[in-house]
Amino acid sequence: MAGRGKLIAVVGDEDTVTGFLLGGVGELNKHRKANFLVDIGIILINQCIAELIRHAVEAHTRSLPAVLEIPSKEHPYDAAKDSVLRRARGMFTADDLR
């Protein structure tokens, strides 16, 4: 994988994972081997599942892999619960955003 891009991992409900599979996340390589756990750069996780492991999500502070919370079909996104967004908001003042 040297010199190649990082992959995206998806942790979510059946509808979310199926959508990403149809979009090409989790495909097989030319040797018919799964690429599911290779060189992950971004982890997309349904926010409702992130709530179940909130302690682990909040403990992850490294930049790679980036952990991004996404909504699911049954559970809308709640920005107040997103630990990454809360940390990002703490980095800037109102003057920085003008």
TrEMBL record:
Keywords: Hydrogen ion transport, Ion transport, Transport
Presence of keyword Ion transport: yes
Family that this chain belongs to: Belongs to the V-ATPase F subunit family.
Gene Ontology CC terms, in alphabetical order: proton-transporting V-type ATPase, V1 domain
Gene3D superfamilies the record matches: ATPase, V1 complex, subunit F
Domain of life, source organism: Eukaryota
Keyword DNA-binding annotated: no
Molecular functions per Gene Ontology: proton-transporting ATPase activity, rotational mechanism
PANTHER family in the record: V-TYPE PROTON ATPASE SUBUNIT F (PTHR13861:SF2), VACUOLAR ATP SYNTHASE SUBUNIT F (PTHR13861)
Coiled-coil regions listed: none
SUPFAM superfamilies documented for this protein: AtpF-like
Organism the protein comes from: Anas zonorhyncha (Eastern spot-billed duck)
NCBIfam families attached to this UniProt entry: V_ATP_synt_F (TIGR01101)
Protein name: V-ATPase 14 kDa subunit
